[in-house]
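=== Per-residue structure ===
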Amino acid sequence: MIKRIGKALAVVVVALLLIVAALHFIGQSRLNTAPAVPSHVVALPSDGEAIARGDDLATISSCKGCHGSDLGGAAFIDEAPIGYLPAPNLTRGDGGIGGRYTVEDWERAIRHGVAQDGRTLAAMPSNAFSRYSDEELGALIAYLQQLPPVDRLLDARAIAFPGTILFGFLGSGDLPVNLIDQQAPHAQAAPRAEVSASYGEHLVTVASCQSCHGPALDGVVNPGEPQGPNITQGGELAEWSEAEFIAALQQGQRPDGRPLDPEMPWAAYARMSESDAKAIWAYLQSVPAATP
């Protein structure tokens, strides 16, 4: 009887090991080979105003928060059980991708979440950046291409078990490449001069505000995730004026004098023009109020 139980347990253990191994290899394959995405030609501007706009977009979209203040790359994740995910060196320096990425490569990485070698970019918020207009993306790429070279070699991505299962299998549906409507047409230009709720929504999206404040901007309370407050009219902003909101973005300080949470990248948003900030305010006024 005991031998039979032992054999049965051995069979169960072997079966579980085979299942885990299969999930590992499936997840690894999904991470190493992204789905096919369309390519799109983006025209690059060369004038100083457009490149300055690209600099603004890189700041507003928090590129430096992951790739480093000089955009020369940094270790984005380096911990168990996930493994090692670098935010690559974006410059033309030694170890950088800037010298080998074509305009089409940049477009696929930023807008679609697919690396030059066909890997899935697991942590790149391309689902937000897919909303860039052609004009904005062209300005951003033109800015990235003229960055001062930074010599910084980073190790290759190494997503380890069980990170392969967590990211590549269980979390496959949340990978940016799978969150994007890859066939959706792209706008030619964003109406930057407009102080409108629709343009404010565009800015909120490309700034990835939802990553901290939640898809409905009603706050994030899940442990282990960035804790952004409710910024609908059901939250604290209901008591703020437009001028106080703009001042908070520019100075990092609430109307009552308390500083904003250090996780809030207000210094990046301070570079927004007043019309951009007003457009965001107009959009936040239009979002359905959510209460705790």
